[in-house]
């Protein structure tokens, strides 16, 4: 990470650090905050920090809590519907005979597909059961989506490499690449120990 990025993150974190004067972070602790927060948009991160400052809390939030706060703000800006609002979109879609039909949020569409598809749900004689199944599927999809967005880029990269295990790519930091394979190993947080700054 470039020194400018580190300074930018430290400046963004300043309001939190200021409201927790007893928080004595070691340089290693700040490196972890920087590593976990570096991929977030600086404006979004700053808004999340201010949101956390205004929230009553006794202790300095962990990097994961700050990341979560940023994603919650992002969700609000993206206008992701709740499960019940999603079901309202489904009902509106079935009642609509206009060009508005088929304009459900992508997560709503995925939840409908997960429970059998638009045709199956539309032909059901038990809308109460379909609603319950939709809400369960939608909540599960939303949680999966949120967890994937919260995941650090380094971890996503490691998961992608593990998925390629059958192709002979190296699995661990010290494994040499297989013959004829490029070295696609990710930068891992463990590399912080090697960082001289």
Give me a quick take on this structure.
With 197 residues, this protein is mainly α.
List its salient traits.
elongated; 197 residues; single chain; mainly alpha
Structure description:
The protein has 9 helices and no strands. It is mostly helical and 197 residues long. The protein folds into 3 domains: 76 residues; 68 residues, no CATH class; 42 residues, no CATH class. Helix 1 crosses helix 2 and helix 5 packs across helix 8. The chain is elongated and about 60 Å long. The N and C termini lie close together (10 Å). 14% of the residues are buried.
Q: What's the structural blueprint in terms of helices and strands?
A:
Blueprint: H1 3-19, H2 27-37, H3 42-53, H4 63-78, H5 83-95, H6 106-114, H7 118-123, H8 127-150, H9 153-163
Number of domains: 3
Helix content: 55-70%
Q: Give the terminus-to-terminus CA distance.
A: 10 Å
Helical run tally: 9
Q: Which residue ranges are poorly predicted, with pLDDT under 50 across at least 5 consecutive positions?
A: none
Largest sheet: none
Taking all Cα atoms into account, the compactness measure Rg is: 22 Å
Mean pLDDT across all residues, rounded?
Answer: 84
Estimate the global geometry from the Cα principal axes.
Answer: elongated
Pattern of helices and strands: HHHHHHHHH
Structural category: mainly alpha
- Note the beta-strand portion: under 5%
Number of distinct beta strands = 0
